[in-house]
Amino acid sequence: MPTHEVGAGTLRRVSADPPARIPPARDPAGRPPMGTNPSDTWLDFILRSVIPGLIGTILIGIGALGVGWLPLDTAIVDNSVVDALRSTTMGAVVSKTAVVAGVLLLLQSWLLLGYDVMRGRDRDIRRLWLALGAWAAPLIVTPPLFSRDVYSYFAQGKLMVAGIDPYTRGSSAVPGWFNDGVDPMWGEAPTPYGQFWLLLARGVVEFTGPHPYSGALVMRLLAVLGVALLAWAVPKIAFHCGISPSKALWLGVLNPLVLMHFISGAHNDALMAGLVVAGFAVALERLPICLLYTS
């Protein structure tokens, strides 16, 4: 029931009703404030964010069987399905369509996940790790796309096993190098990589034998290790720099460029980047101890 009070020559209306609840503030676009609509369950997150991206990378993997890089000397090309995808016009159309559709679906899934991350709906690093692992899984076992550098790595490992200096001779010094899938552009070029990588390449060749596709898959595992190090280290560096770890992980590691270049392409700079960034993360966490010992 409203009442009236008189004070200092003024009449002020006072309401006895309880004050109305003030709704949460909204941004100019009318969207709810950050963090007010978190994902309820892991299943909800998987259905909304993980599965669409996984379907995308499965399509990319299927298309890679037809348009990805395969060495001539591998049994996989004798498979009837792979042969149809690679040797017929319809197979080429299906493969290219699958790759394009898969990349678009992966990009859409990444952008939608980024919207949730930027709005504060998904801040759990473990959920982003799950999405990264699910999206990457189909790309680990399929032929490389957009680059065949991994076969050059394998050929350089064969040079090491044969006792040939890869800093003075190119991959063409190895018998059958063209059948191994090496790009002729690099056939005569000496290696630009350091000794540590060459030792790893030699170890891969000694482990897999003269099987370039098996060697490429093992070398891709080294790239996966590099991406895993990035996924571990980037949130830590972001935290120390006052940046949201989930935003940094989404932008820096989950983006489709990392998945296609590092994992599908099996590039060795994935391991290099992972080790460098992990080193920075360890240095940031151990810096107070280092200063204590040096002071």
Question: Which class best fits the helix and strand makeup?
Answer: mainly alpha
Could you give the order of the helices and strands? EEHHHHHHHHHH
Query: Which residues form runs of ≥5 with pLDDT under 50?
Result: 3-39, 290-295
From the spread of the alpha carbons, the general shape counts as: flat
Q: Would you count the extended β strands for me?
A: 2
Number of helices: 10
Mean pLDDT: 82
Give the end-to-end Cα distance, rounded to a whole number of Å: 72 Å
Helix content: 55-70%
What is the gyration radius calculated from CA atoms? Answer: 27 Å
Topology (SSEs and partners):
Layout: E1 3-7, E2 10-14, H1 42-67, H2 80-87, H3 89-118, H4 125-140, H5 149-161, H6 195-208, H7 212-240, H8 245-252, H9 256-264, H10 269-294
Antiparallel strand pairs: 1-2
Helix pairs in contact: 1-2, 1-3, 1-4, 2-3, 3-8, 4-9, 5-6, 5-7, 6-7, 7-8, 7-9, 7-10
Structure description:
- There is one protein chain.
- The chain has 295 residues and is mainly alpha-helical.
- Helix content is 61%, strand content 3%.
- The chain has a domain at 42-147 and 215-294.
- It has 10 helices and 2 strands, in the order ββαααααααααα.
- It has a two-stranded antiparallel ribbon with strand order 1-2.
- Helix 3 (89-118) packs antiparallel against helix 8 (245-252), helix 5 crosses helix 7 and helix 7 packs parallel to helix 10.
- The longest helix is centred in the middle third of the chain and has 30 residues, at 89-118.
